[in-house]
């Protein structure tokens, strides 16, 4: 009796596509690691470790390319074509036309930016991918691309827990093992972004001048809060520094960022605390609390629990256990 042994060849792993992020002096200050899901679509992680004001990617980009990116850690300042500076904080999603990233005017205030994004090149997107999106998910890609092309070189997507959840799932799947699942998640992401772009939460005000003015107010207030997170600024003080009224400030901020001023500020401070808890293991929780503007450790613990779902002590202990494995 002859026994037969059938070998099942493993499907080769999806190759990693790596690009360098190059600083002003031509030195590498970070990396972009991508994996192709469809022709013309990559999911990628972005790491930058520099406070450089200008950097670019080492690869050539198609003029129509764009990236939908989620800031997991750190922050980024991006100078747009309209002259305004956009600040991206941990937990926020933004869309940038890659034509601008070829030579971007950016600054990384805390020296670190870590994100995950989906890069799309409409010119290279394969016909099968377009058909799947259209027939199976009723995603009108042409409308999607048209909406993105009309928003300028930058668009800050209002905070949405569903977006954060999708990006977290994509990150956990890297490097790709189940390409089918990752493709589905990417299409789900596109559908959600379309809904947000079309929804009431996008800045919809009468007159382009009014829209730009209110967006400028919102980003100016954000910049003031990010500049000194130990400061307990009131709405009235912020409004005065932005040369507007408290009512206009609150309405503008909510329209641009999708959440009230104080909710955004608390989330930003707590995410910064998470970075410090991770990077400075020997510092006490009280010291970390003071550095992000909480003189009272109990109030810090309450704010941390409301935002992260656990206390800062348990969060740090879980982090330590994860690193020991």
UniProtKB/TrEMBL annotation:
Domain HTH araC/xylS-type residues, every copy: 219-318
Domain of life, source organism: Bacteria
Alphabetically ordered keywords of this record: DNA-binding, Transcription, Transcription regulation
GO molecular function terms listed in the Swiss-Prot or TrEMBL record: DNA-binding transcription factor activity; sequence-specific DNA binding
Protein name: AraC-type DNA-binding protein
InterPro entries cross-referenced by the UniProt entry: Homeodomain-like_sf, HTH_AraC, HTH_AraC-typ_CS, PchR_regulatory_protein
Pfam families in the cross-refs: HTH_18 (PF12833)
């Amino acid at each position: 009796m002859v026994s037969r042994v059938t070998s099942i060849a493993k499907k080769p792993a999806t190759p990693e596509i790596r690009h360098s992020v190059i600083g002003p002096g031509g030195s590498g200050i970070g990396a972009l690691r991508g994996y192709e899901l469809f022709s013309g679509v990559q999911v990628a992680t972005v790491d930058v470790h520099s406070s450089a004001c200008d950097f670019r990617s080492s690869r050539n980009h198609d003029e129509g390319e764009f990236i939908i990116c989620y800031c997991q850690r750190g922050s980024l300042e991006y100078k747009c074509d309209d002259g305004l500076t956009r600040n991206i904080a941990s937990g926020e999603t933004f869309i940038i036309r890659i034509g601008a990233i070829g030579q971007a005017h950016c600054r990384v205030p805390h020296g670190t930016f870590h994100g995950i994004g989906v890069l799309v090149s409409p010119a290279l997107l394969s016909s099968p991918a377009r058909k799947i999106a259209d027939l199976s998910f009723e995603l009108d890609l042409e409308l999607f691309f048209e909406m993105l092309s009309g928003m300028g070189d930058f668009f800050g997507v209002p905070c949405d827990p569903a977006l954060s959840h999708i990006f977290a799932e994509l990150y956990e799947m890297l490097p790709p093992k189940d390409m089918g699942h990752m493709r589905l998640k990417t299409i789900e992401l596109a559908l959600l972004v379309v809904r947000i772009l079309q929804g009431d939460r996008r800045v919809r005000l009468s007159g382009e001048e009014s829209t730009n003015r209110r967006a400028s107010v919102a980003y100016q207030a954000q910049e003031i809060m990010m500049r000194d997170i130990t400061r307990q600024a009131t709405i009235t003080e912020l409004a005065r520094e932005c040369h507007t009224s408290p009512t206009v400030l609150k309405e503008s901020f909510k329209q641009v960022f999708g959440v009230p001023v104080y909710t955004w500020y608390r989330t930003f401070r707590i995410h910064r605390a998470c970075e410090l808890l991770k990077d400075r293991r020997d510092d006490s929780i009280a010291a970390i609390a003071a550095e992000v503007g909480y003189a009272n450790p109990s109030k810090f613990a309450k704010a941390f629990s409301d935002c992260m779902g656990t206390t800062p002590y348990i969060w740090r202990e879980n982090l330590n256990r994860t690193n020991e494995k």
